[in-house]
Amino acid sequence: MDSSNQVPNGDTLGRFRNLLIQHGLQEQLFTQVVVMLMGRGLILKKGTMVDSTIISSPSSTKNKDKKRDPDAHQIRAGESDSG
Description:
The structure is a single chain. By secondary structure, the chain is mainly alpha-helical. The chain has a domain at 10-39. The chain is 33% helix and 0% strand. The radius of gyration is 25 Å and the shape is elongated. The relative contact order is 0.06.
């Protein structure tokens, strides 16, 4: 590539990947990338994933005793629930 502004196409990436595999270099390259990322603290080893998908639900916030559930609340899409 002549310029850092050029983006390789799929064929070029495919040929590069195949050359790495043919010469047994893909694992070495991957290992070096992981080591570099770990050295900069950019690899997450543990943590918690939270699904905060907003789904449709009935509009009632009352329980079976016809009383308002104190833990139930509503949020609109795009609003933050960090309060």
